[in-house]
Design brief:
The chain has an eight-stranded mixed sheet. It has a two-stranded antiparallel sheet with strand order 9-10. A two-stranded parallel sheet has the order 11-12. The protein folds into three domains: about 160 residues, NAD(P)-binding Rossmann-like Domain (Rossmann fold, 3-Layer(aba) Sandwich); about 130 residues, no CATH class; about 200 residues, no CATH class. The longest helix has about 35 residues. About 30% of the residues are buried. It is about 50% helix and about 10% strand. The chain is flat and about 85 Å long. It is α/β, with parallel strands linked by helices. The chain contains 17 helices and twelve strands. The two termini are about 45 Å apart.
Length: about 500
């Protein structure tokens, strides 16, 4: 929804702000009560739809091949392969065009089955037309085609009825719910809340609303939905409990207020939508996305979600296991060297900020003398630092000290690629990172990584000047905005090269 230059302006504005120390936000008792409640695991709608499509396509194709092997079995198998695979792909395209692969459609009977059977009939008719035009109709068995049409229609009908019951069951169990908050108040928010509630099966779980106003225009309860705090409270709330969706109840014309809210909320790993019910301009339908029957504008999306999250998870686990096998001799020799060089544990544990500000313990090979360890990273490591052991100097320079973090990856605390997790007291000589950069925590919208875009571009090691941390955050934000699996692979292959050519800041 936002233009690229406006997005850049928001980021640049945030990165330039300094001298603002993050304060502890006090939340209301009701907000604390919601945070204290356990959050049930949910299932991604996009993954559900993807799996349903895949299973449907596989069974349609298998049915076509099964009929061929039972009845036809002649020398034209290659023709049938092309016909079956082409028809299956075309069927999937038509079923998507007719909007039958949507959670809301899965819940219907007449609407869903009508569109599905019409799409399947169109596929069979298309096969006949194409076969006639290519003068190959005599090569295709009419019994095969009619049987595939009838059995395919029966399969699709039964399959979709089964899917409907499964979706209804998951809905009843709350597996498809998206934990949602509304920003705004008064009559506008009331209209929005009632519209959401009218869609009984729209998968939205309203937790409450947040509003900057504190006068009579913003009552404590709007349409039975409680006010939980202001905008600063929402950021703290989202850090401490799962939120999937934020809906801003403001008119599109209030551009300055919308941009202000985005500069505050963009640090969160959530989908952000602007309600369209207050807009006086009617856009074309494809401009909107929908939450049930409620039209919204997409303002921001989770950086990595749904299938992308699955692909990244698989990438992390595969690479971590392979890396542990390859580097296990180096890790063993490093452990022995550390033990022989100085007294103390081999592994150093330090608390770091992870995804959405969650705190976890990161593993590293110990590179300092045990009586000079700095778990809170209150003092920067400088060149020639007398706290660093002889072995420590080498493993820090070569980043061998980071190898135990592969176990953090297997524990789901780290990714292979992502913004580096900084220590809780990470700082330049004069200021904490959070004091220096307002919006610093936007780099935690994704899971942190062992290596990252900033590191392969030379921004690793010490942060003795504000410039170094600014550039590091700038590269982290670029990575988040432009993430793809290929980008991760590129960074992974660039990492060993950068360790050799851009190690001047590591000591």
């Amino acid at each position: 929804m936002l233009e690229a230059d406006k997005k850049k302006a928001i980021i640049d504005n945030i990165l330039r702000q300094s001298e603002q120390k993050e304060k502890k936000i006090e939340l209301s008792a009701l907000a604390e009560e919601i945070i204290a409640k356990p959050v049930d695991k949910t299932i991604s709608a996009a993954i559900i739809v993807g799996i349903i499509q895949l299973v449907e396509a596989i069974f349609l194709a298998l049915l076509g091949f099964l009929i061929y092997f039972i009845y036809v079995r002649d020398g034209s198998f290659n023709l049938y392969i092309v016909a079956i695979l082409s028809a299956t792909i075309f069927a999937n395209i038509l079923l998507n065009i007719s909007l039958t692969h949507q959670i809301g459609t899965y819940r219907t009977i007449t609407k869903q089955l009508g569109r599905v059977l019409l799409s399947w009939s169109t596929v069979i008719v298309t096969i006949l037309v194409v076969a006639f035009l290519l003068k190959i109709s005599d090569s295709l068995s009419r019994v095969w085609l009619v049987s595939w049409f009838i059995l395919g229609a029966i399969f699709l009908a039964l399959y979709r009825l089964m899917v409907r019951e499964l979706i209804r069951y998951w809905t009843k169990k709350g597996k498809l719910k998206r934990r949602t908050v509304i920003v705004g108040g008064g009559s506008d928010a009331e209209f929005l809340i009632n519209a959401i509630k009218r869609g009984a099966e729209n998968d939205i779980e309203l937790l409450g609303l947040f509003d900057e106003r504190s006068d009579e225009r913003s009552p404590d309860i709007v349409a039975a939905c409680p006010k939980l705090g202001n905008l600063a409270g929402l950021v703290e709330f989202a850090r401490r409990t799962q939120i999937d969706l934020i809906i801003i109840s403001l008119p599109l014309s209030a551009e300055n207020r919308v941009l202000y809210m985005l500069t505050k909320l963009w640090v969160l790993p959530v989908d952000i939508r602007l309600s369209a019910h207050m807009s006086k301009i009617n856009f074309e339908k494809h401009t909107y996305s929908y939450l049930g029957d409620v039209a919204v504008f997409n303002m921001a999306n989770k950086p990595i979600s749904d299938w992308n999250l699955v692909f990244k998870w698989l990438f992390d686990k595969v690479v971590a296991i392979i890396a542990l096998i390859i580097f296990s001799p180096i890790m063993l020799l490093t452990a022995i060297a550390i033990k022989l060089d100085s007294k103390g544990p081999i592994i150093f544990k330090q608390k770091r900020y992870g995804f959405n500000n969650e705190i976890f313990e990161i593993y590293k090979f110990r590179s300092m003398y045990s009586d000079k360890l700095d778990p809170e990273a209150k003092k920067l490591v400088v060149k020639g630092d007398d706290r660093v052991t002889r072995v420590g100097k080498f493993i820090r320079k070569t980043s061998i000290d980071e190898l135990p973090q592969l176990f953090n990856v297997l524990k789901n605390e780290l990714s292979i690629v992502g913004p580096r997790p900084h220590a809780l007291e990470g700082r330049t000589p004069d200021k904490l990172y959070t004091e220096l950069i307002d919006g610093y925590f936007a780099r935690h919208k994704v899971k942190p990584g062992i290596t990252g875009w900033a590191q392969v571009n030379g921004w690793r090691g010490g942060t003795d000047t504000p410039e170094k941390i600014f550039r590091r955050v700038e590269h982290d934000l670029y990575y988040i905005e432009n993430w793809s699996l290929w980008f991760d692979i590129k960074i992974l292959f660039m990492t060993p090269i950068s360790l050799i050519s851009k190690s001047e800041n590591a000591y």
